[in-house]
Amino acid sequence: MQMANVSKRGSKTLHAEIAGAGFAGLTAAAALAQRGWSVRLHEKDEELRAFGAGIYLWHNGLRVLEAVGALEDVLNGSHTPPVYETWRHNKSVSRETFNGLPWRIMTRQHLHNALANRARAAGVEIRTKSEVVKADPSGKIELASGEVLEADLVVGADGVASKVRDSVGFEYDRWVSVDGLIRMLVPRKKKELGAGEWDNTIDMWHFWPRVQRILYSPCNDNELYLGFMAPAADPRGSRVPIDLEYWMELFPFLEPVLVEAAKKDTARYDRYQTNTLKEWTRGKVALIGDAAHAMCPALAQGAGCAMVNALSLAMELDEVADVEEALKSWEKRIRPITDRCQALSGEYAANRALSKGNQFTRQALEAARYDPTRRVFSW
Ligand SMILES: Cc1cc2nc3c(=O)[nH]c(=O)nc-3n(C[C@H](O)[C@H](O)[C@H](O)COP(=O)(O)OP(=O)(O)OC[C@H]3O[C@@H](n4cnc5c(N)ncnc54)[C@H](O)[C@@H]3O)c2cc1C
User: Fold this and answer.
1) Is residue 208 part of a domain?
2) Ligand 1 mean position, distance from CA 186 (Å)
3) Mean pLDDT score of the chain, rounded to an integer?
4) Dist. CA 294 → ligand 1 center (Å)
5) CB 21 near ligand 1, within 6 Å
6) pLDDT class for 9, splitting at 50, 70, 90?
7) Is the model's pTM score more than 0.90?
């Protein structure tokens, strides 16, 4: 791959500076370095780590992992539930298998480690405690230390509060939902839970006597990802550590795992957010991931789309010689899928549509069905 790249661009090795070592930044770093770019990745935190608990990846994200060589590591120690079940008031309303579409649940750290390992193996220089405070479309970034670095490509993968985005002056609309989620990992406690299909994903909704939802998602043999959803206006439902009595009242059969969840005081209540930008690129700057398209998690596609867009960016730069032209054609090609996914995810979140069951329609799974390596919807 390196040889092909060098021959196409003459003798010059192209250089990228990337802000943010989340799923988007790590994927972009690995994919570019694997194509012969010299890549420096800046992470503002002291160490590389993932925030949050568990994560769902679908066919699109799994194809990206395969393309960067991280699929095997991720499949080892993650889980595909036999069924995605939806309950309303503790009664099953749907059991979905997505027509065989591949999907997987894992801990965020597991996914993060696999991507970081691929980035390192591809020769990416990873700088921690390195905050990017400013970027310029001419291809410059400025660090909190005052150092200024130049590149052929600047990637803003620095999340929902992106400094790359805001310093360049990208305009966007922002919408925050009325609901939010507390996320945590607890031990599976399968035996203690008693009889039940506890290997399934179970999305458990209550609207009476109040809105409360638990998304039950097994990540592997030992770890269970629990999402506690409640409106932000509900002080008991949005409290951390969770209010055991309050959650036990509606989900008494989950007692063994709720007792574990109540011990966690480091979790956080997060509102859902949608950011829609007018453009994702300017000059030599490209935005990817939550910096470009933070979306509600209803369709569980924020990271999936981020990874697809990161890989697609590297692929486009491999094919179109001029960087600025490549960024424009990349956005034109890839953005509509993300835009539609973001819009539907926001609509689902606003209407709490997933509670009806059977909401993973073909349209809702559009982004999930996309195979970025072949640029086709392959399911
Ligand atoms: C409740 C909830 C559930 C979700 N569930 C799913 C799911 O199941 N599946 C799915 O695909 N998506 C899911 N998402 C979306 C997903 O979490 C995000 O879309 C994804 O993590 C975005 O990745 P990112 O790399 O763009 O940003 P981040 O994960 O935010 O990473 C940004 C990185 O940049 C660093 N950084 C920030 N600023 C700077 C700076 N100035 N300089 C240097 N470094 C910086 C940060 O420390 C961080 O490491 C969910 C989101 C929420 C809120």
Assistant:
1) no
2) 21
3) 96
4) 8
5) yes
6) low
7) yes
